[in-house]
Amino acid sequence: MLTFLAFFRDSFGPFRLFDYVTFRAGGAALTSFLIVVLLGGWTARTLRRLNAQAAERLAGLVDPQFIDKEKSKTPCMGGVLLIGAILLASLLWMQLNSPIPCALILATAAFAGLGFIDDFFKVFYKRRDGLSAKMKFAGQILIAIAALYLLGRDPVMREYLRQLMVPFFKQPVYQGWWCLPLSVIVVVGASNAVNLTDGKDGLATGCTIFCALTYAVFAYLMSHKIFAGYLNIPFLPGAEEAMVFGSALCGGCIGFLWHNCHPAAMFMGDTGSLALGGAVGLLATVTRQEILLLLVGGIYVMEAVSVILQVGSFKLTGKRIFLCAPIHHHFERKGWTETQIVVRFWIIAGVCALLALASLKLR
Questions:
Q1: Helix, coil or strand: residue 363
Q2: Dihedrals phi, psi of 175, to nearest 5 degrees
Q3: For residue 214, which of 289, 268, 275 has the smallest C-alpha distance?
Q4: Helix 338-358 to helix 298-317 angle, to the nearest 10 degrees?
Q5: What is the CA angle 232-236-237, rounded to 5?
Q6: Which of 126, 70, 360 has its CA nearest to residue 230?
Q7: 59, 129, 269, 306: which is deepest, by most CB within 10 A?
């Protein structure tokens, strides 16, 4: 929306800045950051007055002796503020003249809406599982398919969606429509993985910062013909808007850490975690780096795999592999403090992000 000011560049020179994607990306990050920081205290107090604490979900993953009750009074649904700030900043600073920004914004809003419904049932109806797993999963799949349809409205993006890019390879290893189901799996999987990671103060938020920054860099390089050619990555006009979106995502998460660091004033809830994961998955799809998400989101993968193994083992043998799942709870039972868990996982996430960026030169 603010980009229209560039039309008045001849009347007022500084308006030329709105022609530069780096300026708009910085503006989006700062806008979402300030909104979350300034409104976070009021949001936490409002949620506390509404008694917005979610019912605890056990689902057979946790031995009853390991259930942590100390945070039961911390309000959730803080994702309303976080995602709202990200979407508002994106609307203000992105050029909404192509399918890419529209798909990113609308799909993230849809994931947030799905998470809000889930949180609403947990908070106000005290249902431990909120929406049924089938309904939530179906909703995520429909949102992912709709997002891919919108992305496919861009002719160049439509062609790229049919290409499977693998790290360290210059050319696509496969071309065909079978890449689309993979993209759906990546978006839905990322949404659920971030949801599982959101179990310690600042854990999911901090890891998402590294993911968003990594994909913002990829989006910027893809939008620059010379850089894309030099690094042997696809050139995609319009991908710079994904960089602005990724910057807004990063700024909002940094702002949310102000209130979500230990001890958290509020949790993001499924409203935030499902949307953040979906947004990261979409950024991976737009930049054609879905496979690389296994490295960029290494913490997400570790958390999700630990739950899959725990559930599978418990159902097949009645025994648990970990003391508690997701795996951050396992380390808690091993004696790590919450701060140790969060900071060490952040370090791993940062190393994974650096390795992912290094793959740009190893092709």
A1: coil
A2: -135, 125
A3: 289
A4: 120
A5: 135
A6: 360
A7: 269
CA–CA distance, 190 with 300 (Å, rounded to integer): 7
Residue whose pair of structure tokens reads 């179906």 in the numeric block: 138
Asked if residues 355 and 340 have their Cβ atoms less than 8 Å apart, the reply is: no
Which is nearest to 234 in space by CA: 157, 295, 180, 182? 157
Pick from 201, 208, 76: which is nearest to 130 by CA?
Answer: 76
49-67: string of b/e by CB count within 10 Å (b at 16+)?
eeebbbeeeeeebbeeeee
**Helices (H) and strands (E) in the chain — how many of each?**
14, 2
- Tell me the one-letter amino acid at 82: L
Q: What is the DSSP letter of 189?
A: H
Q: Is the pTM of this model over 0.90?
A: yes
List pLDDT tens digits, range 83-122: 999 999 999 999 988 899 999 999 999 999 999 999 998 8
Residue 354's SS3 state is helix
**Terminal-to-terminal C-alpha distance of the chain:** 38
Per-residue DSSP letter, 264 = P
Find, among 98, 105, 38, 27, the residue nearest to 258 by Cα: 38
Hunting for tokens 């559930």 — which residue is that? 311
CA nearest to 193, candidates 294, 285, 286, 108: 294
| Structural Rg of the chain based on CA atoms | 20
Structural tokens at position 112: 């947030």
| CA–CA gap between residue 52 and residue 245 (Å, rounded) | 29
Q: Give the three-class secondary structure for 188.
A: helix
Could you tell me the two tokens for 257?
């850490």
Give the long-range contacts of residues 331-337, CB within 8 A, separation 24 or more: 332/68, 332/200, 333/66
Select from 199, 193, 202, 99 the least CA-distant residue to 154.
Answer: 99
Write out pLDDT tens, residues 193-252.
999 999 899 999 999 999 999 999 999 999 999 999 888 888 998 899 999 999 999 999
Look up residue 86 and give its two tokens: 């990200």
Task: Respond yes or no on whether the N-terminal peptide bond of residue 263 is cis (omega within 30° of 0).
Answer: yes
